[in-house]
Amino acid sequence: MAASGTLILSSLFAPNAAQLLKPLLRWRKNWGKIDKRRIDDAIKRLNSKRLIELAEKGDEVYVKITANGKNLLRRFDYDDLELSKARTWNRKWHLVIFDIPEKKKRERKALSEKLKDLGLYPLQESVFIYPYNCRDEIDFICEFFSISRYVNYCIIESIDKKEGDLRRFFNLI
To answer: Per mean pLDDT, which range of 3-12, 44-53, 148-157 is the poorest?
Structure first.
């Protein structure tokens, strides 16, 4: 759909709308070299999550950010992203596990740095843990870097060897 015509971004109304479509916009200067399926897939994902609406007029496709998309933009600004903490801990651990290929090593490094900046504890090089729900934020970061397929989010009830250290690290004692 989007690959067949010109993509018009002029109907975006949020002031930081480019943040939502950054994976698309960062390719603009190399537009002719891009795999059009990646653009189409990104647009379909945003559309299926009802973050954007598509309208075709002739050969052009117009993209409009929905109310849900605007709310997400207000909630998630990549540079100022913070994780919330619940008043009480439900004794569940939230694990972020990833296996990102070497060809995407910049994205892998950026993900690791962002997870550390957000306060997740690195159990291993590609395994991070947090005591509170952070699924939406992790999904946002993965979409931001176009690496969702390489990242798993797990909720576990206990961890063998480091639980005491983790509780101290997150002030849960």
So the answer is: 3-12
